[in-house]
What does this fold into?
Amino acid sequence: MKKAKFHILLLLTQIAITGAFAQNSLLGLGFWNLTNVNGEIRLGASYGEGNTNLYNMKDHSRSTNLYGGLALRTGSYIWSPNFIKLDVDGAYFPSSNKNIYQIFPNYVDMMNQERLHLGATILPTKPVSLTLQYNADQAYDSRENLTDIRTNTKTYSGILSFKPKVFPFNISATENDWTTKELATGHYYQYNQKNYDAHFSKSFGKRDRSELIITRHDYTTQSQTMSPARSIYNNFDLRNFHYFDSAKKLYLNSDLFGTDQSGAGLGVNVYDQFKWNENLYFKLPHNFRFNSGYNYQYTSQASENISINNVVADLSHQLYQSLHSDVNAQFTSNNQTSYNEHSFKESIGFTYIKKLPTKGVLTMSYNYALL
It folds into this structure.
């Protein structure tokens, strides 16, 4: 039999003070000018008491929670807002939670969180701009007689943007270091991530758009019981979309994607992959539509190679809002190290949908396929 009875009295006080100013310059010291300041002060407390009856074991508990904090954010510029903009964000939030029992063990939980974020944008309104960011965060959690864990996170990033209409692109680099450690035992876990991205876009006319995305992702993990494991991904993605007529009834969509994954360590999968997709869409007279596509995929691994070709063509027709019909043909070729498989499929189908006067819907469909 399990019974529980709990009464709680909550007393909460919180004080928040925020202020913000947005002017051309709040404070000028030669080349450096302060433009905005905002901050926040937090202060809160809660108290609770309760009685429990679990399997004929009666207990009385008291809990006290205290928390507070201070945050400050500033914005400024050097010489001119169009030259260098600076942002600073700092905060510290401590808290404690104390639980007292008559029978069960007492425990005290103390947590502290702090951060420092720095940002700078060079030439923010110009065709060429550079954004730099540094973030440092720390969290500490101490539970009496149980554990104490400290987590540190650092992030470095930069983005170079080139924004002319002729050939816009941006290049970014980000590194993230995350470490969590149990101070009493020395147990730890580390994670490092490095990302490099480049994005290019170009239109040669009013009916097309091309994009090239190049990325490199580098991940490393390590702990006191695990040797470093590293995975590296090198990817490229070339996309193209083109309308052949001003009415946008005929278009071609192309996508080339390739990835190379390498690395070393436990659980790291090494492989190369290439994908090629083509899709042609044609809106014909009298509510006919033709859609065709070609898909190719090649994957190379240590144990096997896989090559897949897929061709599909579909002709559909819409009669008013009720009757939809389509004719479909599809060919698939799957070649692997251990076996080869080829298939050809033809199908024809009809779907009839009609709203009934009784607010219901009548749906009938038929599909015939040859495999």
